[in-house]
Records
---
Amino acid sequence: MGRLIAQLLGFAGLIGLSTALSSALASPRLLLSHPTENPIAPNPEASLVGAASCSASGCHNANGASGTKGSEYSTWIGADPHAQAFAVLGTTRSKKMLANYKGLDLVQADPQRDPLCLSCHVHPDPEIKKKAYPDRFSVVDGVGCEACHGGAAQWVSTHYQASWKELSNPEKSKLGFVDTKDLGTRAETCVRCHVGEKGMDVNHDLLAAGHPRLRFELSAYQANYSGRHWRILDEKARQPDYEWTSWLVGQLATTEAALDLLSHRASHPDAPWPELSEYNCASCHHRIGGDFGQSPSAGKLRFGTWNDIRPNPQSLPLAFFGGILGDDERKGSESLKKLMEREPQNRDQIRPLAQMLSQKWTNRFEKTKSFAIPVPDFGQIREWILAQEKANQDGTCSPSWDKDTQSYLLLRASIQNVKNRDGKVSPALDKAVSDLGEELGQAFPKGKESIWTSPEKYQANSVRKRFKAIQEALP
């Protein structure tokens, strides 16, 4: 399983993490917090003061154990790959990537000055927002504190005072502070770079130039985050269903971001179209002498197999999202899939539908502060596996490494939930889920950096047997 997660994750070539995914579903119900008062960009006037403003030994640079309070800066600069995000832009690989993307020679290509590269490897808008203390902010810091916590010019000198704790979230937000302790807000912060948005788009042209494919899944990223500057125990104290919430809110935030990005891509006539990064890679990239891993998707456009926007048995269990999505979202998502998989793709038809769905998802989140989500039990998991495999057999759904890996991450979370609650699960079930993870991990060629390779050894029929073994082992 660790090898699969290492292949799944990647931050512009920096993150290749091998720790096992740790997920837990600790209670029968979940309260998903999604505060509307604290949006991602709360104050457009918020200025950047730079990570150095947090580096005093009496502030966040105590150099204590990783994740301990007061050692956030020392943990970040010593262990967090985000701190090296600017440095990686200076490598020969990055220069070749930009040269390929823009048709430049290697001498002309300078990713460390290119706005597209800097928008994710430093900050979405570093040049405009460094108003207050321009001498302190430096792109060399990479993805620093303010990329996640918000421009700090208006709160850096007060956030450690007792009066700060008395402020409400809306009051803090007005000062530019982003409350990443809330998992909904955190997920929205992550997806800006790890899924993309306007001006921060890893499109197919950039992938063809050599950029790693974006395969973001929040719970796996958090479980394997090597430079975490906070304690998981504190997370669980705030949110007992921490791992389950991470998985669920990650799916919701990723869907919202993917729809918004598609809407942007379809709205700009100068952008490449069709945007091939929206599709499963195996639609085009597969062995000439046969199918890409014997997958039925080869040669056929399969839309959104990683960021699947459709809450149905072929993707994710509809029961998990009950009470969140309305009929308009369900029907619209299915219509969008059909339009995206029709050849040729009619941009004028896709654009208004993508915009409508994107706005509906955004409005629903803005209007809903919390909603109860049933945590799935093994009976629901069994029904979901049966529905998924039936859809594969009757042709209404095509298996792929993407879908099977997303399913694996959910199943792994379910197994961990029972372990946390009961202290154990049956050895047969534990082994069946682990075997699925190993099978998916072995789909990548050995001896190569997996974030730049495809799961070309994926065997759909063999993976189906793994799912059947899990189904049979469920109590």
---
Amino acid sequence: MLFFVEVDHVKSGQMPTPEAGRAFIEQIILPTIARAEQLIAEKKILSGGPAAGRISLRLMIEADSLEDVDQIISSLPLWTVAETRVTPLIAFTDRRKHVQMLLERLVSMPSHP
């Protein structure tokens, strides 16, 4: 199954000190990048990456279940300080079948004057 995943860092509103900024980079940003690169090598992340100018990720993840995608996302260090949205996707061929069935039902319905 394919999932579109959005991971956005939740800012506290306070200006970080240089020490806090350094710790955030060392403990969250760099380990998140390393983990994402590992997931790409394992072909769990199919595409995507960091959003330009933001502390955010946009990812296409392939997983067998919602539980699997949850485990993948929660393995990213950024997840602990982020808001995450997961959108399951279906294949275009499946959508075409559903829409064709809908069209057939609509065509078979009597029209009203």
---
Amino acid sequence: MITAVLPTYNRAPLAFTSGQGSWLTTEDGTRYLDLGAGIAVNALGHANPELVTALTEQAGKLWHVSNLYRIPEQERLAEALVEATFADTVFFTNSGTEAAELAIKMARKYHYDRGAPERTQIIAFEGSFHGRSTGAIAAAGAEKMVKGFGPLMPGFTHLKWADHDALRAAITDQTCAIIIEPIQGEGGIRVVPDQCLKGLRDLCDSTGTLLIFDEVQCGMGRTGRLFAHEWAGVTPDIMMVAKGIGGGFPLGAVLATENAASGMGAGTHGSTYGGNPLACAVGSKVVEIITAPGFLDSVAAKGARFRQGLEGLVAAHPKVFEGVRGEGLMLGLKCLATNTDIVKAGYGAHVLTVPAADNVIRLLPALTITDDDLTEAVKRLDAAATEVGRTL
């Protein structure tokens, strides 16, 4: 018999009733160190008091009015993002999936309005993840996401990750855009080298192709910069954002240059909930905190410290782990043992991690995690690795 909740997840046998900072607590009072942060969502930790205040103050005033009217909270958040990034304009969504849909539409409309309606083809990469809508799974193209769902949205070319020659050959007079994650999350914490991002920017400029960065998982301070592409010194034309921008409240966005967004006039796109006062009040506080002086430096320092501890963990368990990858507090342990076995062993050690492709476990703690909690994280991961190592 089917369950009341559609059974599309293989859920862990854990249920949490409260959280504080980097810790979650079950009904019986057991505490777990959370190194997943809701898959990079709870960027400022659980029950962050500043976010709680922003949420409750706005909740007492106004939740929702729809985009039929001006929304001052939305305008403030958009202005903050424009000031802090490459973008000239922002559209707010409820999720990264919705951001992917708009990014696709925006890129195709750009070329249509310039008299090139044939330029609809979007180049994407193996191992990518852009959401679960039919458009987003068509962009990723992985069999596990598309099998059984019938005809997919056409217009996507899928290339092997880091195959530069194939990329150059794939661009034609029908190419509309290239979409890429500067760091693949679901794909296994695979970092696109700075020189490759620079090469992509040059290639797009020379061919009139738009460059779309998906920073849904790697953005909002996770790497020690506000957005991961900043390390390479390049900018996209369009960027997808979600997860950490709401600090746990559903919120996403598409950021774009004026040029890339020029085709999106009144009536070309919309959202009932996207950018409502409640979401944007929380998002504004998140952006304020993350862009405050010293915050991103602290993330980079914590990432370096955590990575050092993880390198020691790899050395101590050579049959369990192969290496560490990633940037800042978006780190991955490449496993020799089965990654899901290590995740499950973590439950016994009361530490939470997230599996990914390429036999990797993701470590995506709150950006506010303390040094003491990072030390405790390595200890608990060591206990989980020791447990798995006994079976090898």
---
Amino acid sequence: MIIAFACDHAGFPLKQPILEAIRAAGHEALDLGTHTSDPVDYPDFAEAVGRAIQGGQAERGILLCGSGVGACIAANKLHGVYAGVCHDTYSAHQGVEHDDMNVLCLGARIIGPEPAREIVQAFLAARFTGRDPGQERHARRVAKIRKLEK
């Protein structure tokens, strides 16, 4: 899977551990910046990840900012982007399995490198279960969310 990745200056300290976690899980990272710790605006990087997903250059995305919240809000403004802030492994995999989340947002000022790696692994290993027998309720609920987009 190709994973679009971006961060702002506040997320920059966790950039390398996250890129390493993506590659260690057997995926390709599409690094969309930032490339320094100089101040930048997180909406620009959330847009870059969202556009990569919309354009088919990536199947999922990971965003880092200070709290994860700003990047999440910005990413969710893009049609077809379903971002969630997750600072634990359960939310990271459950967001994909039940809610078809395709962008993981992390706060570099909230968690450290090792929890971040574990959360990324959980996110990348998960798959949407709404098409599985007995799990149709998840597809039904996601369809209602997609209807809200229109």
